[in-house]
Q: What sequence folds into this?
């Protein structure tokens, strides 16, 4: 820790070095001026150095704005999170946070300003789930600012994000699935839907699937990668967790559909002189991977033209797969493994409400397991 005295016009001043900015590396200085004599400035400098020496953990307030700090923080965060997560962080900071509170000094933030940000976002129609994510980003960012010594406390801890009301999960029953598949005839995309229904795979996992991932003899496929949101556009990535790497058993009907799709792809390939084989199960006419927006466009177009089945998201096919298996009595552990959940608890929390008969079945099973005494003291089946 260093300091020096200097003359400014007709008065004296001193400056103290108080470290460097943790991200930019720029020197941080503390100035004090207006002393009439050099001796007075030197005396006050000595007092300042003594105070700083006694408080090694002193936090100097930064003059950075929220916008400038978040820009530096995102650079720091980029190497710690997946590209898709970073893209979501960057988008929320740029679109929702900076326009509202970016001009404020970081150390001047208060709970009321955050509450106003959340309330205004709700009034503008932003989903509560998105606002909750904004709250999480700000909490993470300000927690880092505290560790870096830029602010004294994380005021996000004093504010609660809007409560997120869980939306009712939409799934199709067997009849609705049959009706949809009879009318959704696009040969390039139809098997994508069938595979989602038959395996519970995510869209990105299906699009990144390769023929070499399928074991025809064992009737199973291996999930090894996913086509997910990247810094710009999409990119192939490994699964997020160890549970994401999994082997899924395939039914005989699913194997048959995949074989038929492969024959169709070979025919399509012969009619496409620019086709480059990249081994993707689902590909564009030139062999490239299918972009998510291409499939999403076809999916949305179908529901604009038809009202024969309830409109659901493609991701709801994953929920449909899980609900059908649980309804058929398949053990939740097996369902969890097929979906790639890291814990069976996730599966049970997410899907048990889809089976209203489970409580009744449990009560009925109790009668077959235990005999309780009657009022007369006799033991008989209830």
A:
């Amino acid at each position: 820790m260093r300091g020096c005295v200097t003359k400014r016009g007709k008065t004296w001043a001193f400056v103290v070095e108080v470290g460097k900015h943790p991200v930019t590396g720029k020197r941080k200085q503390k100035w004090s001026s207006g002393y009439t004599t050099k001796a007075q400035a030197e005396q006050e400098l000595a007092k300042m150095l003594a105070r700083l020496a006694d408080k090694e953990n002193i936090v100097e307030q930064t003059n950075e704005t929220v916008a400038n700090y978040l820009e530096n923080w995102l650079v720091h965060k980029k190497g710690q999170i997946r590209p898709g997560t970073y893209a979501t962080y960057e988008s929320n900071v740029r679109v929702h946070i900076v326009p509202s509170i970016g001009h404020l000094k970081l150390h001047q933030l208060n709970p009321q300003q955050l509450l106003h940000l959340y309330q205004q976002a709700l009034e503008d129609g932003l989903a509560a789930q998105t606002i909750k994510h904004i709250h999480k980003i700000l909490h993470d960012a300000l927690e880092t600012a505290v560790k870096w010594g830029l602010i004294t406390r994380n005021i996000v801890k004093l504010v609660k994000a809007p409560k997120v009301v869980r939306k009712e999960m939409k799934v199709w029953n067997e009849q609705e699935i049959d009706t949809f598949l009879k009318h959704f005839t696009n040969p390039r995309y139809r098997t994508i839907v069938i595979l989602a229904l038959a395996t519970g795979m995510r869209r990105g996992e299906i699009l990144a699937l390769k023929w070499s991932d399928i074991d025809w003899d064992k009737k199973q496929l291996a999930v090894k990668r996913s086509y997910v949101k990247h810094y710009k556009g999409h990119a192939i990535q490994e699964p997020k967790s160890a549970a994401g790497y999994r082997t899924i058993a395939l039914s005989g009907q699913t194997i048959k559909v995949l074989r038929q799709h492969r024959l169709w792809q070979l025919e399509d390939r012969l009619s496409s002189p620019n086709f480059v084989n990249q081994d993707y199960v689902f590909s564009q006419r030139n062999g490239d991977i299918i972009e998510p927006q291409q499939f999403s466009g076809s999916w949305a177009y179908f529901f604009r033209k038809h009202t024969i089945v309830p409109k659901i998201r493609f991701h709801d096919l994953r929920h449909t797969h899980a609900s059908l298996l649980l309804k058929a009595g398949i053990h939740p552990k097996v369902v969890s493994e097929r979906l790639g959940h890291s814990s069976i608890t996730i599966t049970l929390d997410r899907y048990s409400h889809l089976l209203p008969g489970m409580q009744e079945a449990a009560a009925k099973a109790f009668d077959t397991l235990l005999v309780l005494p009657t009022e007369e003291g006799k033991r008989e089946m209830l």
Q: What stands out?
A: Residues 146 and 152 are 6 Å apart (CA to CA). The domain at 66-158 is CATH 1.10.150.130 (DNA polymerase; domain 1). The chain has three domains: 3-54, 66-158, 174-325+335-342.
